[in-house]
Amino acid sequence: MQPEYRSRVSMKNPVHFLALGFGSGLIPVMPGTFGSLAAIPLLALLSSVSVPLFVAITLVCSLVGVYLCGKTARDMQVHDHGAIVWDEVAGMLVTFLFIPINFPTLVIGFILFRVFDILKPWPIGLIDKRLHGGTGIMLDDIVAGAMACGCMHLLFTFWPAVFSLF
Q1: pLDDT tens digits, residue range 149-161?
Q2: Dihedral sign, Cα of residue 42, residue 49, residue 107, residue 95
Q3: Is the pTM for the entire model greater than 0.70?
């Protein structure tokens, strides 16, 4: 994060702390990747909860993220600054909807999510360009997570052996 933005956010502010992915967004290189990595301990904690609870937590994280990201972007005075990575955290949660969480799925899900988040195929790129505020910041990553989740389900259905490679 550039120095002029550092003065506008505080890790003591819980909104900023969450929006910056527990601080992972402050890493100067590849903040989106580190934000996605920050979701892995959270996913590990959630690996034993029931499916309905996982869905509810994912929904809450996604909806609350609209506020967190929007407020932090306004405070930083920059739309979708790279340090704002709560959208990656929520996108990773979406990636694992109805997917068992273990080492092989975490690796494959992480890679798939990052590919969709970085390349931004249609409609992700369109959402990223056209929507603004907290909704725009969050929605492209939610869709990237949904696309990664769809790929995970296809892999489970048509090529389950890929998950035993690890």
Answers
A1: 999 999 999 998 8
A2: negative
A3: yes
